[in-house]
Amino acid sequence: MPLSADENFSQPLTKLKGVGPSLAEKFGRLHIHRCIDLLFHLPHRYEDRTRITPIAHLFPHHPAVIQGKIISCEVALGRKRSLLCRIKDNSGIIGLRFYYFTTAQKNQFAPGKDIRCYGEVRQGSTGLEIYHPEYELGENSIQALPQTLTPIYPATEGLTQQRITKVVAQVLTQFKQNATLILPDYLPTKICQQYQLPSLKDALLYLHEPPPDAKLDQIAEKQHPCQQRLAFEELISHSLSLLNLRQQLRHHPAPPLCDQVSVTPKFLQQLAFTLTGAQQRVWREISQDLTQEAPMLRLVQGDVGSGKTVIAALAALRAIENGYQAAIMAPTEILAEQHFITFSDWLEPLNIKLSWLSGKTKGKARQQALENLKSGDTQLLIGTHALFQDDVIFSKLGIIIIDEQHRFGVHQRLTLKQKSESGALSCHQLVMTATPIPRSLAMCAYGELDNSIIDELPPGRTPVKTIVLPDSRREEVIERIRQACTNKKQIYWVCTLIEESEQLQCQAAEKSAEELMLAIPNANIALIHGRLNSQDKANIMARFKAGEVDLLVATTVIEVGVNVPNASLMVIENPERLGLAQLHQLRGRVGRGAIESFCLLLYHPPLSAQSKARLKVMRESNDGFVVAEEDLALRGPGELLGTRQTGDIAFRIADLQCHVDLIEHAQLVANTLHAKADESVIDALIKRWLPQGEQYAQV
Ligand code: ADP
Ligand code: MG
Question: Ligand 1 test: best mutation among 304, 306, 346, most atoms within 8 Å of CB?
């Protein structure tokens, strides 16, 4: 492979010697497609083969290189036949044991021969032994000891360590000769100096071949400056791609939506409450954005119950009073329905025409909904991701509001964006998250958005008391529910997911409902789960809201958006199955009124250390921002954003837990680079780090 430029190293692996399509396919499983990907495929651990350990200094469970002479070799007939070869150096004797061996191998181990081997020492039946060591025989063929630690790379089925090492070595050799051509260092030296980080070349070479005295602990914790150097560049590139996305989104003008002083005052007047200070501030921020020609791209964060819905309503109303349509998208049918009910209550008195669309809207109803939308009759469309479908055409879409609940990723936002672009104007976008997300994550996942935070709960809320109990105390809990029913309190009983199976979850809920009906015959008990049709679900929710149902047994379908202020007790069965964000979200269904509320977490022992930690966080904090930070620390970013499957923000090297400190700095550097608008550098960085994420840039 000629080595002229960066470009060449972006070529597929098959350009390398000895790499055919089938081997390339195996590397593909490790997300290695291009030659440069190999450079970024870092070892996950190292072996120290740089020195020989005298046999007398060996101890069990430690790997070591030893060198000596063979003194005997025989087949041992124990429980399992094995070959035992004993070797001796100046300090002692050790056995090498092979359970799988060939006669040829046996014959190789002639007494008197020199041997060097590497393996983990263990206590065997003849004293210290090494099982199946790697070895080299004979004076002449024993090579010099390596000067650096031996890298062990993440591997995959059918791809041996040896194979990977060989291919990586090929690339490394070329890289050493020609580093700046292969991988130009785009980070200004000044920045590396400022953060005391090594150059790209030094960082990569160090991590592939660290010196014997490398601080392996530091590397294991991903805190080595060389790792930070790479993580930093990756985070910068990621930020740059989001800045690019933002720039491109903002490039298409949107309709300026000014305060028409017509419907909004009426809406605010008829509301049963006045906006909190935080709501007013966030609404001002949004309102200001909307008057601009550049489309608004804003994220609204607020704890469960902080009142994001009314903000969405105000934003939608602003579009509508300017003669544009608004769309609100929720992640689940039940939440979309809740929104539809709330918005109908609020907006129908103002003569605004709302319409509903979900995946389950079929036939005539769907046809009608689409026609009304296209003709402009419908002013506000509410629904699930069905709003994304191709045949959903707006007449004049002014704003799209996404109630995100950690379920939509970057991809879905993009599709939506493309849709609005098909019109003459692009539209404003408001993203709302159900629960707060940690700052570092927000930057990485929503870096293209401006951020508004509702950091205040409406007045008159009493914090929920959370109690953690083992399920051996179920009887007591049921007794408590009985009392609550007698006192006209309303209760949720939530059954959690079993093995991702909705069917099993529903069965569990049915079983609990039956049990509770027997135990508390006087109570009005209803059951709601995801397998009911929307009409039934809506009816049950309406009855619960109206106080006709005392106890609602539910699956996690009620996780989001359900609002029944009189409900003051929630029992969650097997809370250990849920993540913190989800538990917090569920708990947010109570504590919505002035009565003191309780959340009973009825766990099934024994708890893992992590579950224990999670339930402790729940007991100790009611603050969604705290819960989110803890969730990040406990579970990592993928789980938290729900993007683990889609890999939306899967980093190669950066780790949002270990490199939190770098994120903010990376953003600053990205902003500087972006402001300088050196597009060749920006493009090269994005291509280097986000080859599959190029779609960010293309929209
Ligand atoms: P979330 O932020 O979780 O979406 P909601 O918008 O559903 O919260 O609001 C939770 C509840 O608080 C709703 O019943 C809503 O009507 C009420 N609410 C919102 N803002 C205020 C306020 N400023 N004063 C009193 N109640 C409010
Ligand atoms: Mg909400």
Answer: 306
Given a cut of 80, is residue 106 above it in pLDDT?
Answer: yes
Q: What CATH homologous superfamily does 465-621 map to?
A: P-loop containing nucleotide triphosphate hydrolases (3.40.50.300)
Q: What is the CA radius of gyration of the chain?
A: 31
Quick: pLDDT tens for 519-562: 999 999 999 887 888 788 888 988 998 999 999 999 876 655 56
Structural fold of domain 51-145: OB fold (Dihydrolipoamide Acetyltransferase, E2P) (2.40.50)
Protein residue with its CA nearest to atom 5 in ligand 1: 307
Contacts of 298 (CB under 8 A, 6+ apart): 285, 286, 289, 429, 430, 431, 449, 450, 451, 452
CA of 305 to the centre of ligand 1 (A): 5
Is the pLDDT assigned to residue 699 strictly greater than 60? no
Burial of residue 139, with CB atoms counted within 10 A of its CB: 0-12 exposed, 13-18 middle, 19 or more buried: exposed
Fold of the domain built from segment(s) 263-454: Rossmann fold (3.40.50)
- Per-residue pLDDT, averaged over 644-648, amounts to 41
Q: Is the C-beta atom of 59 inside 6 A of ligand 1?
A: no
Distance CA 209, CA 151 (A): 7
| Contact predicate 429/417, CB 8 Å | yes
Amino acid 622: pLDDT: 92
User: What's this model's pTM, rounded to 2 decimal places?
Assistant: 0.79
